[in-house]
Design brief:
The complex is a heterodimer. Chain A is mainly β. Chain A contains no helices and eleven strands. Chain A starts with a strand and ends with a strand. Chain B is built from no helices and eleven strands. Classes of the chains: A mainly beta, B mainly beta.
């Protein structure tokens, strides 16, 4: 069974601070997705990383895939209250490429 | 931008009743999935579907569950005899192909409450 461990589980920071969320596994994934989920809604795709060592930027969000494709990080620069939400990483594996989700990081950015 | 849609948004049912959750995947996608998320827990894979048959299923997807693509657009999840522990958010997802750069897009979910 493939597992994805996300840390921290909860993060509360002040507006303007930087933060990093980690997603770790002992398994190799074909690709890894980061989603953001609001309460009562479905996960919304932020980014997909595919190549080991890949770095992708989405405005103030920087995503990195580990060289061995077992781990990933999400770094947010100068966090804003609008960044508040649940961030999920999900690894893509299996013959049907079903997703294995991490437990999520609940981010709260205080004004 | 094309979206995955799901109906109903909320379904309340009595234990033992059958429910059908409906999804309309993105139109040119070929792979379809159901996931569930029990309140406060991880999103869990249930089943994947391609070319009118199940590709893979998890241990959760027992004989009480079935999936169907009755026409060219709908993708349904049926729970034959609901149990209290089936209460969860159920998410449908679709994917165009299985290429590395392709990924799954999720619908807004159906909240199932079993009383």
């Amino acid at each position: 069974t493939q597992l994805l461990e996300q840390s921290p589980q909860f993060l509360s920071i002040q507006e303007g601070e930087n933060l990093t969320v980690y997603c770790n596994s002992s398994s190799v994934f074909s690709s890894l997705q980061w989603y953001r989920q609001e309460p009562g809604e479905g996960p919304v795709l932020l980014v997909t990383v595919v190549t080991g060592g890949e770095v992708k930027k989405l405005k103030r969000l920087t995503f990195q895939f580990g060289d061995a494709r077992k781990d990933s990080s999400l770094h947010i620069t100068a966090a804003q209250p609008g960044d508040t939400g649940l961030y999920l990483c999900a690894g893509d594996a299996g013959s049907a490429r079903q997703l294995t989700f991490g437990s999520g990081t609940q981010l709260t950015v205080l004004p | 931008e094309p979206e995955v849609t799901q109906t109903p948004s909320h379904q309340v049912t009595q234990m033992g009743q059958e429910v059908i959750l409906r999804c309309v995947p993105i139109s040119n996608h070929l792979y379809f999935y159901w996931y569930r998320q029990i309140l406060g827990q991880k999103v869990e894979f249930l089943v994947s579907f391609y070319n009118n048959e199940i590709s893979e299923k998890s241990e959760i997807f027992d004989d009480q569950f079935s999936v169907e693509r009755p026409d060219g657009s709908n993708f349904t999840l049926k729970i034959r005899s609901t149990k209290l522990e089936d209460s969860a958010m159920y998410f449908c997802a679709s994917r165009k192909v299985l290429g590395d750069t392709d990924t799954q897009y999720f619908g807004p979910g159906t909240r199932l409450t079993v009383l």
